[in-house]
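In response to reviewer comment 3 from the previous cycle, which asked for concrete evidence that the modeling workflow produces usable outputs, we include below a single protein chain processed end to end. The sequence was submitted unchanged, and the resulting structure tokens are shown without manual editing.
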Amino acid sequence: MALDRDQSVLVWNAAAERMFGWSADELLGRRAPIVPDELGAEHNAVLERVRTGEPVSLRTKRLHADGRVLDLRVDISALRLGSAVAGYVCAYHPARADEMAEHRMARRARLVARLTDVVGGTSTPTLSCRPCSTASRPA
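The workflow returned the following structure tokens.
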């Protein structure tokens, strides 16, 4: 989605409609009612950081049209016209996608550790050699 400097919706795509439950017709030109009241200060602080030129990515909560609270990751960047900030571009992702990626990375790390142990245990076999005595050699 894209917002102007006053946080009115400029772009509300099909993915935003599916995620939040409001249609583009309902929100274009209006402020999207997705930020819970208790997270208003966080939201404004994030937008201030973006306004000063720093893109932000964070895990947060947002509201669905039916009242459900959504656990999401949002990536926010400035929408610029020349050097001026004209608004914000926000890409929202379900936080469970982050959790699944973290789970896959942890599982992969455990597999690599096990393989390292296996390879480490078999790549350097211990050989024991006894010197042969000349008395025990056949003639």
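Confidence is low (pLDDT under 50) at residues 123-129, 133-139. We consider this sufficient to address the reviewer's concern, and the full set will be provided in the supplementary archive.
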